[in-house]
Design a protein that fits this description.
This protein is an alpha/beta fold. The chain is built from 10 helices and 10 strands. The longest helix is centred in the last third of the chain and has 19 residues. 48% of the residues are buried. Keywords: Kinase, Transferase.
């Protein structure tokens, strides 16, 4: 028996071939696989291409589970069409397409019900019911309206503190120095030059500085940002987390042992005592687990 798990994101699609025990046998990475915004065909090509890559040695799969952010924004008829296109392109009608928080949740627990808090470039919390269904959500509203505590939010706060330093309202430090160096300034610029540089890039560009904030966690400015980010993330998780159900932490900022993840753990212990807090492995592992659960008796 062989199944394929797929984590299809806005920048890349990762597919893995696994056996009945979940052991990974092959892997492929293709381009963006998010079908939202009228990009269903492009997403299908990326996902199907990655799936067919890993099926090269075995020929066919007993089941495929695809987790992608865009599936939650599709109308039911578009969801069915998307799944049908994947089935046609991959040569199997055993395709399960679910929102990416579902595979993130499955990558952290085998529980039927619970919640997942994801912090990467953005930030969102969702309650998962019966392993497949999104029962409720909090935040995940994008860089303009929310995603509080995520990488974009953290990076923007870092740039704001740099601007305050350049205008003489805040003392600088390692965080300021590294952000300016990463921006490419050899000498101290004006705040206007920094604003102009940021405006010349995509709106999510400041998310690149979240890594520096985490690495310079001892800097008072970074400490301030991370504390505020943790508070916002926990407030988001609190809105969807039910008593006696597990909470899975996922996303690049929470799935590793970072100062932010530690701060979130500490706040959760205080705010949601008794909640079992777990950490997800790679989301594609959750897609494999769901494929085995769904199609294991095929």
């Amino acid at each position: 028996m062989h199944v394929v798990g797929v984590d299809a994101g806005g920048t890349k699609t990762r597919a893995v071939l696994a056996d009945r025990n979940g052991a990974v046998l092959d892997e492929s990475v293709r381009g963006p696989g998010n079908p939202s915004g009228g990009k269903e065909n492009r997403a299908v090509e990326a996902i199907a291409g990655a799936v067919l890559d890993v099926l090269g040695t075995v020929g066919e799969a007993d089941g495929i589970c695809v987790g992608t952010a865009g599936i939650a924004s599709l109308a039911p008829v578009s969801h069915r069409m998307f799944t049908a296109l994947l089935a046609d392109r991959t040569g199997t009608d055993r395709v399960l397409a679910v929102p990416d928080p579902v595979i993130a949740f499955a990558a952290g627990t085998r529980a039927e019900n619970g919640s997942v808090l994801i912090a990467g470039t953005g930030a969102v919390a969702m309650r998962v019911a019966a392993r497949r269904t999104i029962a409720s959500r909090a935040d995940g509203y994008g860089w303009q309206l929310g995603d509080e505590g995520g990488g974009q939010w953290i990076g923007r706060e870092a740039v704001r503190r740099v601007l305050e330093h350049l205008d003489g309202h805040r003392r600088g430090g390692p965080l300021t120095e590294r952000v300016l160096a990463d921006m490419g300034f050899a000498e101290a610029p004006s705040s206007g030059e920094v604003v102009a540089l940021c405006m010349s890039h995509a709106p999510t560009w400041p998310a690149r500085f979240a890594r520096i904030v985490v690495e310079e966690a001892a800097d008072p400015a970074s400490e301030e940002i991370l504390e505020a980010a943790a508070e916002r993330l926990v407030a988001t998780a609190r809105k969807v987390t039910a008593p006696d159900e597990p909470l899975v932490l996922a996303g690049s900022l929470l799935s590793e042992k970072t100062p932010l993840a530690e701060a979130v753990h500490d706040l959760l212990e205080a705010d949601l005592p008794g909640t079992r807090v777990l950490t997800a492995s790679a989301p594609v592992d959750g897609a494999v687990a769901l494929a085995l659960e769904e199609f294991g008796s095929a």
